[in-house]
Amino acid sequence: MEAPAKVLPKEPPKLIVSIGPHIRAEENTAKIMWTVSGALLPATLMAVYYFGLPAIMVILVCLVTSLLAEAGMQWVLKKPITISDGSAFLTGLLLALNLPANAPLYIPFVASIVAIMIAKQLFGGLGYNIFNPALVGRAFVLISFAKVMTTYVAPVTTFMAFDAKTTATPLVILKEEGMSKLLEIYHTKAALYQDLFLGNRAGSLGETSVIALLLGAAFLLMKRYITWHIPISFIATVGLLAWIFGGKEGLFSGDALFHMMSGGLVLGAFYMATDYVTGPSIRNAQIVFGIACGVLTVLIRLKGGYPEGVMFAILLMNCFAPLLDRGMKSRVFGKAEAKGVKK
Amino acid sequence: MEATTIKAHDTFSGGVHPAGNKQLTAHKATVAAAIPKRAVIPLSQHIGAPTKPLVIIGQEVKKGEKIGETTGFVSAPVHASISGKVVAIGSFPHTLGVDMPSVVIESDEKDEWVTGLKENPDYNLLSPEELKKLVQDAGIVGMGGATFPTHVKLSPPKEKPIDVVILNGAECEPYLTSDHRLMLEKSKEIVDGLKILMRILNVSKGYIGIEANKPDAIEAMTKAAAGSPEIKVWPVKVKYPQGAEKMLIKAITGRTVPAGGLPMDVGVVVQNVGTAEAIYEAVRYGKPLIERYVTVTGRGVKDPKNFLARIGTPFSQLIEEAGGLTDSAAKVISGGPMMGMSQYTLDVPVIKGTSGILVLPKSEVSTKSYGPCIRCARCIDACPMKLQPSYIGIYIEKGRYEDAKEYNLMDCFECGSCTFVCPANRPMVQWIKKAKKELAKKKN
Predict the structure, then answer these.
(1) Which top CATH class is B22-28+121-285?
(2) What is the ipTM for the molecules in this complex?
């Protein structure tokens, strides 16, 4: 005879146990990276509008190389492959926007390899790199291939613009021939400012359109993905110092607006100096970081060998970010009060 | 009478805004939970020395009878919450996640009070010392969750004069509504409890801090305190962790408790509104702390409710009374979602510090692993203690506890704001708890 089936007690529910908090805000690394990339869409579209198919080619080479370099390096280092987190895509996009549209395609290729493999992955990958990867990539090709990297084309009228006219950027003209030459070309300051604001000038393909960059930046500020501390202190410092020291007719005769809208300043200040990993994370330290970036930028623009100094300024300040964080730690709640208290 | 309009006062810097989810239970009047057939009453339900049992197996006990005697000053006696027979004394699951010495009482379903509980209709004639003795004997501990024995807080050393008592009705933890309901349903008792506290401490300024998202509670408490100009109802900004002692003191008095210090260092004593109500019941009616308000909530239970439950009631019973678990229930938390403790069994009992039972469905429980710190500074902005949780986390991750200490690890009170906002899902609170333990080990 079979034994009567035992009535089992209702199976207790399987519970997940972990240390709190048990709820999380709906933010994650991938969402941040993809959103910042999305904020660069207006600037990217303007790049294509002004520089045509060559710009698309540079962007594509940067994106594809960056993603492959990230995955390949992680495969070699036996790490989990994390290209879906968007950080390699963002680096590739930023790098592309920092290159001249007419660059031969080995330039974006080499720059991407250096950015991802050396500046990012060899330093430990996302979160551990000291220098902004996109800027390291750009610095490498700027120094290695100085000639092509300083040859810029004017905005084009046809999409298939492979034989665009090369021309100097406004900063180069200012450095070599002065503001009078710029006025000769543009006739009025207003026309000059308008072209700078819209992006109708020679330059790296994503840096020219101030309005497109500001649009994306406003979105990031609104979403609190970036804060005002670094970009505002950076740009304001450049404007202030350019006004004081940038003029031919002595102190306080420089053109602040021109300096703030030209070169890679807006792109650099809002999208590169604000890189979480390579900048300071204490808010007060960020202000110092921004001001120092501004000082270095103006120093290079006015006195240095290069017409533009944003890239080197940010890279230089990247090394100081940990030090700034350490030195400017906010005071712990109640630390000041703790001194006089008897225990 | 102040604060009739809901204008939140000043607040602390930092903090986060998790979804409140209080609508699940905020409007539901508290119901008395069934008297448990078997009550498991831990001998330690407070911070401090555990009690030693006064009963033996087989002994009949009455409701309110003392079954655990204190072994030191920082301790609180434990009482039987039902009448019946002691059937076991031993280790049983506790909400702390480990088994703890407990007394198990099987109900005789008579629910009879122990004789000799003394009512004090004229308690205003009692001296502060006598009042404090009543609080101590009733086994009252901080009912907001910290469970620090109340009489200890009411015995500040002479060199720390107290001039303000604050009742904490902030209830900043999402989901929980037990304090909210208590303020609506026992407003008068809470105010009277506060007055007793003020008498014991000889203080003439009392505040009741309530987050501005509870206008009905603010109105009820304001009404209850109407005849008492020494008591002010103080709406505070809706922000987690507004109910943390140091943050609430900052918001109400503007005083900053020194790092590593206590509220009494700035002349303040903070008590939870539930504690004040328990104090009133103890002083006026001689009732020891044997029951409390418990919110059973979350989308993992079918019918979220507020209960008045006996200490020792198993979680499983209250969850059944709240309609039972849904099919997707995945995590059961004692307390709120920010600082509460997840449970591995539903056999754990309600204790003096159990403000709620939160059941989260699978869809709301993250089991994702964490990624590298991207130094986004969200945790730095969120930390109410102005620490740099990102750096602390990075050091602890690498086992560098001493370096984490340099970054003021010890000032963290584990509110979880940093971990809540972290986009890389880094378990900062878990690491910090671990580091504190490791550092304590090294010290010994």
Answers:
(1) alpha beta
(2) 0.93
